[in-house]
Amino acid sequence: MSYLSVHSLGEDPISMFREVFGSVVAKIASIRFITEPGYDIALYQSIRQVLADLNPQISVSLKTTGDSHDRFWIVDETKGLFVGTSLNGIGRKYALTDYMKDVDIAAIMEELRRLSLL
């Protein structure tokens, strides 16, 4: 399972999303978006359609919370990437992107469960 935010992806978010994730979507059984309550509903629906087009078997869900600011992409609850910018910010300004430590992933997963986001 993967987790990421869909709050803002830039000027051409669907093309960027397809370019960044297109080659791996066929390998994903499910993806869960956890994002801010004020997310762009049309953007989410478009991304959901891209996911379905690339992998008709994929299970997609969304929950919202105001309890997080940072962006984490967590795979199978064991591997994670901290992404300090939205996709539209990549390459525009300096931003941190780094692998997450196992202990940090475990803490985030525990907090997501506590908040009933999983």
Indicate the low-confidence ranges by residue numbers.
Answer: none
Helix count?
Answer: 3
Head-to-tail CA distance between termini: 10 Å
* Assigned CATH architecture: 2-Layer Sandwich
Radius of gyration: 14 Å
Can you tell me the CATH superfamily? Endonuclease Chain A
What do we call the CATH topology? Answer: Endonuclease, Chain A
**Class derived from helix and strand content:** alpha/beta
What is the share of helical residues?
25-40%
Total domain modules: 1
CATH hierarchy, class: Alpha Beta
**% residues in beta strands:** 15-25%
Describe the structure.
The chain has 118 residues and is an alpha/beta fold. It has one domain (2-114): Endonuclease Chain A (Endonuclease, Chain A). The chain is 31% helix and 24% strand. The chain has three helices and six strands, in the order βαβαββββα. A six-stranded mixed sheet has the order 3-2-1-4-5-6, with no helix packed on it. β2, α2 (41-54) and β3 form a beta-alpha-beta unit. α1 packs parallel to α2. It is globular, with a radius of gyration of 14 Å. The termini are close together. The mean pLDDT is 83.
